[in-house]
């Protein structure tokens, strides 16, 4: 995929990740396992390192959590990837909302939404210190005559005492080409937008409601300008799902195959994982209209009726929803 993307002049490959499978729908992971939806993931850090060896220009962005991955470990992994890629690595910053992810890291439940972003702010402070505050650009000497590899006077030990994270020492990796990787973020809540305004260079958004997408990006850039950032440096990446073919007929055939293979229950399992709402409680082939639903750790506000149906004639699945998910 990396070689094909580079051949096609794609700017960046974005590797999403999840630490625990969705098991809100039916209270089980069976629907996502059967449908192959966000299950069976390989570690993107390791996959990205292999991708760097067969490419020269395409960027590679990796997802990593500020709630569960230790900052020093994360900073070193990104520094290593940045060295291996010669400055082509990006980080998709997530705070991890699901209970299954919390349990995968030995916690009984998730941290509340706002506290996850408080943790993320402190996490970023430490990450910037690790990447940028411990080594001078000219610390690497390689002076064989005087037997000096790295100049001790040009590295600095520092101490970080935070509410959530602590560190004492020098960063163990010498400066990478970018030092700080390109930063992606996708939060659309109030806290998420504040975080994006301070840190993000790329904003990923699904773009289900174009007018909401425009307003959200404007708000993030407005907040960025208010704290002294150039708002034009924050780029928006709107999600689309193109189906490509050498001819129109080939593309349409691929689309038909995708429709035929669509799994309604896997799609519902993913939606329920995001919203915290178990739709298996409702009849599968009947519409429901709820003004507001609050369940689990997240909240979803339904702006219009949601209708899930299986078209048995075409063996395809369609979902119609328009809403704003708050909480992640």
Sum up the overall morphology in one term.
globular
CATH-defined architecture of the largest domain: Alpha-Beta Barrel
Give the tally of structural domains: 2
* Rg over alpha carbons: 22 Å
> Could you tell me the number of beta strands?
15
Can you give the mean pLDDT? Answer: 86
Description:
- This protein has a six-stranded parallel β-sheet, covered by helices on one side. Strands 11-12-15 form a three-stranded antiparallel β-sheet, with no helix packed on it. It has a two-stranded antiparallel ribbon with strand order 4-5.
- Helices cover 35% and strands 20% of the residues.
- It has two domains: 2-185, Luciferase-like domain (TIM Barrel), CATH 3.20.20.30; 261-326, no CATH class.
- A hairpin with a 2-residue loop joins strand 11 and strand 12.
- The chain has helices at 2-7, 30-35, 44-52, 71-85, 99-104, 113-132, 190-199, 210-226, 248-261, 264-275; strands at residues 12-15, 59-65, 89-94, 140-143, 148-150, 158-161, 166-169, 182-185, 202-205, 235-238, 293-295, 298-302, 307-311, 316-320, 323-326.
- The protein starts with a helix and ends with a strand.
- The protein has 328 residues and is α/β, with parallel strands linked by helices.
- Helix 3 packs parallel to helix 4, helix 4 (71-85) crosses helix 6 and helix 7 (190-199) packs across helix 8 (210-226).
- It is globular.
